[in-house]
Design brief:
- The structure is a single chain.
- The protein has 78 residues and is mostly helical.
- It has one domain.
- It contains three helices and two strands; from the N terminus they run ββααα.
- The protein has a two-stranded antiparallel sheet.
- The radius of gyration is 12 Å and the shape is globular.
- 17% of the residues are buried.
Amino acid sequence: MKTMSCKQLGGACEEKFQANTFEEIAELSKQHGMEMFQKKDNAHLAAMNKIQELMQKPQAMKDWFESKKKEFDALPED
């Protein structure tokens, strides 16, 4: 099990997520992002806009995703 914060995953806060795989932690982050979107949290909305800009450039998005996966893989087990 490894831990990453919302901010480490491109978000806007220090909420922590724990998962065994990067895919699992990315899903937890996505769910958190949807909750923050529904609450209209300005900091998270700004972070989401940055990700949406990346999504317009498939290679940039792929590079970003891979860098976050490498960061997760390098973390020590909790």
